[in-house]
Write a sequence for this structure.
């Protein structure tokens, strides 16, 4: 039975959202990003894992759950607001089933009612509001490998100080231990952004592997013998897995990718705009402005205007997802057979995606994944799905290659996060890092209010470091929100710094910041000290 | 509402946060960041104090007499090659194009005096740029790592069956570059950025020269002002600075710049006219 397969498939989903939580507002627009992703991607994925396990289908998947996401998922305020969110959606979906009884939208209306009922059932009855426990359960079964990410998805190649790199990794590893009961074995470097040498800080936290865009490996030195179809070891011994571009392209491509099929759900036609205003108003934000509410009744249909889209047919779309899953598997089998022959070795094909592509952007993407897991399990013998940890324990000997600086962003390097729209940020970010290191070095044993202020400095600093802000400025969506976030964390940090250095801490203000920016409740500011960084670098 | 704090609406201080970011931090310093194999980004701050000290040491008119430049050093393996880029010190940041990828660079902002002497004002960190191509190094080393990192064992002389490594890496690289070019996620992002194309060496001719020129316009005003250049609105950075990069064809370019204060009671105008004339020897 063993060794029959010709190669391996590792599916890697990167789940991440920036930390967005505004207790100072009753109702906050950008918090919806999290609620939408919960309803469309994170909970549906757990639903799939539950179903596959119940019916005895074995599967393997690797998922990052970034520290900001873990902090949001376990935050009381956001849990409360998420309940409010899906209960409102369910209420509307129930009304919609009645309203659409004799229309062409009846099936899709029923689909949303089922969907939100199931979300409530999973969230409340299965996980009691603690969905990280759900993910942990499948990790403990060995089917899911949860990996971490930099503390706030910080973009490491643009950091000047190694203290900042170390802090991003160490805070993440500690947060992971708190949620999942053991240390992380792998990490998703934010944006797959790798700077040669930073892997020593991964090793210091016991992290064994990370992922790179294709050229990070194939432009590495010396030349990687197996390209991206075997991991390489950095000189530190940490393994780097490279992205397979064929499977990436098959799903992502704007021209030929699966999500563009005309039977799939149309993203841009939304009930928030379609329904009669007074009827939909209770489900909009308090300002009453029409926006997407995540319920959509139409299919892509073809190259027609939004008002010419045809009704969505859930059954037909699901069949298409099954057929695309079959096509994806067929292509991987042929690819793996070919590589096995070409390389003289069992290749590992690493298929990496943003998790939110599945379910949120590509609504049927979660169905696609479920079919793919089943088909791989029941319908073929060419390949085996593995997690990176499993692969490394089966194949501990690999080539030593120094990967090159790279990212998975446009053009492959740092330009998405460093261009005319966002380059002004870095002098401020670097100054804060310098000041934070200065504080951590200067106060080795602070306690009381000073300690709290130093820890809050650490929180404000890492929140400003999220690569998301620079990214959003580049793509031009939510540009003013991302600018505001960066600027306000910078002010909060600098304000605290000046109060600490001037020995005039305002406790009320500190309290307010602790209440607003409460990521990493266990923050210990000493993580930014030069001493801790050097200790980690020595290994 | 449950949270690790309490809601007190009088406790929030939005006005403190609405103010712009500091223009400087009162230190003379500079930093260099890698963008891609051929481009880097530098920012700097030079304080009034540093300027005064430079004047004290080299003469009151040193900033008028000297040409303001970024000196870009190739410091790979301790080499000292450099070239200069003319800038205005007030620009405070710049994108630097280098012809050779895969090398280590550092920069120094300073003044080139008429006699050729260089007065450095501030130096950056060193940046190692990626090579951006398949490595020429083909020596192979292998390692085994035990699951708890206890053992890092270098293997040597292990024979692996398979194609030559160059062939695999090179064919993958070709395929990757092709896919990048035709599909890349850029299409959905609509990333607009400055060109990262370096000048292409023309084929066939033995000795060659290409040259081109672009125009960078920059300035600063109150962060909440309304600014137009040639009648088009300009987005200001949070610190009130702005910059634009234009193609500069032969002929006259007229760039009227206008700033209107937030309360619309005050305006300032600067008009910049640039003429370009290119001649070649036609060879």
């Amino acid at each position: 039975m063993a060794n029959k397969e010709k190669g391996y498939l590792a599916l890697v989903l990167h789940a991440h959202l920036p930390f967005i939580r505004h207790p100072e507002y009753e109702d906050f627009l950008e918090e919806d990003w999290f609620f939408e992703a919960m309803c469309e991607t994170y909970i549906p994925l757990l639903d799939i894992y539950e179903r596959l396990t119940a019916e005895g289908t074995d599967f393997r998947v690797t998922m990052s759950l970034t520290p900001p996401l873990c902090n949001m998922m376990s935050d009381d305020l956001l849990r409360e607001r998420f309940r409010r969110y899906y209960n409102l959606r369910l209420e509307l979906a129930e009304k919609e089933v009645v309203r659409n009884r004799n229309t062409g939208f009846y099936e899709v209306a029923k689909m949303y009612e089922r969907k939100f009922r199931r979300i409530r059932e999973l969230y409340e009855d299965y996980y009691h509001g603690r969905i990280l426990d759900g993910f942990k359960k499948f990790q403990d079964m060995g089917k899911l490998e949860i990996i971490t990410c930099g503390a706030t998805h910080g973009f490491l190649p643009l950091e000047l100080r190694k203290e900042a790199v170390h802090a991003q990794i160490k805070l993440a590893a500690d947060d992971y231990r708190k949620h999942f009961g053991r240390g992380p074995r792998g990490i998703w470097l934010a944006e797959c952004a790798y700077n040669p040498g930073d892997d020593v800080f991964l090793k210091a936290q016991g992290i064994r592997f990370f992922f790179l865009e294709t050229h990070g490996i194939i432009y590495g030195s010396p030349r990687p013998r197996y390209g991206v179809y075997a991991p390489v070891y950095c000189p530190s011994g940490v393994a780097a897995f490279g992205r397979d571009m064929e499977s990436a392209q098959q799903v992502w491509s704007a021209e030929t990718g699966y999500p563009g099929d005309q039977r799939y759900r149309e993203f841009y036609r939304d009930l928030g705009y379609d329904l009669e205003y007074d009827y939909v108003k209770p489900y909009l934000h308090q300002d009453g402005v029409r926006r997407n509410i995540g319920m959509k009744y139409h299919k892509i249909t073809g190259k027609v205007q939004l008002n010419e889209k045809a009704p969505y047919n859930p059954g037909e779309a699901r069949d298409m997802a099954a057929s695309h899953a079959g096509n994806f598997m067929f292509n991987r089998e042929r690819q793996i057979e070919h590589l096995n022959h070409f390389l003289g070795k069992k290749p590992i094909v690493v298929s990496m995606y943003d998790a939110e592509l599945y379910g949120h952007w590509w609504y049927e993407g979660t169905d696609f994944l479920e079919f793919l897991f089943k088909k791989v399990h029941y319908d073929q013998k060419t390949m085996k799905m593995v997690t990176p940890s499993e692969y490394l324990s089966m194949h501990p000997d690999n080539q030593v290659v120094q990967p090159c600086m790279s990212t998975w962003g446009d053009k492959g390097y740092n330009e998405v996060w460093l261009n005319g729209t966002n380059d002004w940020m870095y002098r401020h970010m670097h100054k804060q890092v310098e000041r934070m290191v200065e504080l951590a070095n200067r106060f080795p044993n602070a306690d009381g209010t000073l300690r709290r202020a130093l820890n809050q400095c650490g929180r404000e600093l890492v929140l400003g470091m999220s690569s998301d802000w620079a990214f959003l400025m580049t793509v031009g969506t939510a540009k003013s929100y991302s600018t505001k976030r960066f600027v306000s964390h910078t002010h909060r940090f600098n304000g605290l710094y000046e109060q600490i250095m001037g020995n005039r801490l305002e406790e009320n203000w500190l309290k307010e910041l602790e209440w607003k920016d409460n990521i990493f409740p266990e923050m210990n500011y000493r993580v930014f000290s030069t001493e801790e960084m050097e200790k980690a670098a020595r290994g | 509402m449950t949270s690790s704090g309490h809601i007190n609406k009088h406790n929030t201080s939005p006005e403190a946060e609405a103010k712009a970011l500091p223009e400087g931090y009162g230190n003379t310093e500079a930093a260099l960041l890698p963008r891609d194999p051929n481009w880097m980004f530098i920012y700097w701050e030079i304080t009034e104090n540093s300027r005064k000290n430079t004047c004290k040491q080299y003469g009151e008119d040193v900033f008028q007499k000297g040409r303001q430049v970024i000196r870009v050093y190739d410091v790979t393996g301790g080499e000292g090659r450099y070239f200069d880029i003319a800038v205005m010190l007030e620009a405070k940041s710049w994108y630097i194009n280098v012809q050779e990828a895969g090398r280590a660079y550092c920069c120094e902002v300073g003044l080139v005096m008429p006699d050729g002497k260089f007065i450095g004002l501030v130096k950056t960190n060193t940046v190692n740029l990626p090579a951006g191509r398949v490595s020429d190094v083909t020596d192979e080393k292998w390692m085994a790592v035990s699951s708890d990192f206890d053992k890092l064992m270098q293997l040597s002389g292990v024979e692996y069956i398979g194609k030559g490594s160059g062939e695999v890496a090179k064919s993958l690289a070709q395929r990757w570059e092709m896919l990048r070019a035709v599909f890349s996620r850029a299409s959905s992002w609509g990333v607009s950025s400055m060109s990262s194309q370096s000048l292409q060496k023309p084929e066939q001719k033995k000795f060659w020269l290409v040259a081109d020129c672009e125009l960078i316009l920059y300035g600063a005003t109150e962060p909440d002002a309304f600014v137009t250049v040639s009648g088009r609105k300009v987005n200001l950075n949070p610190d009130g600075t702005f910059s634009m990069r234009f193609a500069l064809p032969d002929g006259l370019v007229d760039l009227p710049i206008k700033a209107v204060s937030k309360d619309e009671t005050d305006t300032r105008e600067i008009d910049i006219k640039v003429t370009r004339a290119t001649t070649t020897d036609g060879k």
In short: Residues 271-308 of chain A form one domain. The mean pLDDT of chain A is 95.
